[in-house]
Amino acid sequence: MVRTQISATKCPLPPGRAAAIPTFDTCRTRFADRLELAEVKDPYAKRPANGPPHTVEQQDRGDRHPKGWRLVLAVFLPFAAGYYLSFLFRTINAAISPTLASEFGLDAAKIGLLASVYFLVFAGAQIPIGVLLDRFGPRRVQGVLLVMAAGGTSLFGTATGFSELLAGRALIGLGVAASLMAGLKAIVIWFPKERIALVNGCMIMLGSLGAVTATAPTDWMLEWVGWRSLFELLTLATVTFAGVVYFTVPEKAAASAGSTTFRRQLTVWSVFADARFLRLAPLSAACIGSSWALQSLWAAPWLTDVEGLDRPSLIKQLLIMALGLSFGALVLGVIADRLRKRGVTADVLVAVLGGLFIAAEFALVLRVPLPSLLPWCIVSVTGAATVLSYAMIAEYFPQELAARANGALNLVHFGWAFAIQYGVGLVVGQWLPQDGHYPVVAYQVAFGLSAAFQAVALLWFAGPWIRNLSMNLYAWFARPRTDREIAFVAIPIQGAMFDTHEATEW
Fold it and tell me: DSSP letters of 60-99?
């Protein structure tokens, strides 16, 4: 019966073979293929265990997501608001540290510890939070943690001693620890891959307005309501942002997550074992972490003790630096997007910015006769280089590993920021203050050590490029050449920052 029906079925012939008579086996194979295709498209097919939905309604519902301005309002802005809070809490110590030092009798080492414990807790939470983000999504993790940040803000604002200040600051660091990674994870999920650097730049630009708020606006609030009332307002704002993230951001259906296969297991260790990550992380941490540590705390003492600025001039320069950080993120994102279209990768821009940052620090240390605002603006803009680092991480690792990879990079960023922020306080504290100000040499030694570490990290990052350039130059000079070839010497200035064997196939 089956044979008769199949043989009677009209069998489609391939183009150009209309005169050919198909055999029974050919028709049977094509008919079976059609049956399999019909089963896949069947809207009433049964859903396999641990697999994606097969019905048309389920697929349409999973693929339906906001686009255009709805995507910006429902996904981008809520996470940018959370990152704004993170940046505000990170840099607010530069404005309130004189008040805290006076009220609680804190020296340079305790001020450094109080500011840097934020980075320590922040760094320690990155890996677990990365795993949670990949498993539960950015909406849930960010919403819950911001509630914890509100508790830390309340504790800090009602503290009566240094230990309570330290505990509140640590809880704030834990509560906003997912702010950047949650936003980056949401961007990787919702936005096209080729626009990640630009969208990252926009988010970091808006988030870094928190650093702007931590300057003149915070100073005005301190004079108007005091630091305790200020933290009451921050508690209310944190709870509000937590609700916005949790109830506004939609869920992204992960229909294809189970069908994707990888050659390597998706673990945190696979991130740290990646050769490209190991080459990028030291430079990214040494430059970005140092920039955060200096701008969020030690820029103010330097400008006061070394440059001799009064309070209004200090607040003005900190405001300009914060604006440079904010708009620098957008500029770096746009530049990276334009260079990508021209075939220039972000690693070249990272190396150039790292070199400028080191030069700016040495200009400060050596007291080069330049307006101090110029090198300090370079220092602040370098803090926005996360736009480039996280775009590179998105290229290195698959989407399913994005949060853990970003968390691993964040771990070294904030770990180094803690080390520099606390370490500068320890080094500066080796000198006795004179009339309430530490000597210039104390800051020169502390900043010089930081810049030296960054120079080593830059050499490590550019090692393959330097090696390839040296080999090309040697090959050019070693082989004999004619007079016409000698008349023009072409030195290769472009090349892969990483060796070919360092690329990992996922």
Answer: HHHH----THHHIIIIIHHHHHHHHHHHHHHHTHHHHHHH
> What is the C-alpha separation between 206 and 201, in angstroms, rounded?
9
Closest CA to 418 of 95, 53, 90, 45: 90
Residues 6+ apart with CB under 8 A from 321: 211, 295, 299, 373, 376, 377, 379, 380
Calculate the alpha carbon distances from 430 to 107, 154, 341, 441, 446 in Å.
12, 34, 50, 11, 10
How many residues are given for the chain?
506
User: What distance in Å separates the CA atoms of residue 446 and residue 297, rounded to the nearest whole number?
Assistant: 14
Helix axes 373-382, 311-341, angle to 10 degrees: 50
**Three-state DSSP state, 328:** helix
* pLDDT in 10s for each residue of the chain, 506 residues: 444 444 444 444 444 444 444 454 454 444 444 433 443 443 334 444 444 444 333 333 344 466 667 888 888 999 999 999 998 998 898 889 889 988 998 888 888 889 889 988 988 898 899 889 888 889 999 999 999 999 999 999 999 999 999 999 999 999 999 998 898 888 888 887 777 778 888 888 888 888 889 888 998 999 999 999 999 999 999 999 999 999 988 876 543 434 444 555 667 788 888 889 999 999 999 999 999 899 888 998 999 999 999 988 988 998 899 888 888 888 888 888 888 888 888 888 999 999 999 999 999 999 999 888 999 999 999 998 988 898 888 888 887 787 888 888 988 998 898 899 889 989 998 998 888 889 999 999 999 999 999 999 999 999 888 888 888 777 777 766 555 554 444 444 444 555 544 555 55
- Rounded to two decimals, the pTM is 0.68
Contact 197, 321 (CB under 8 A): no
Handedness of CA 324, 325, 331, 336 (dihedral sign): positive
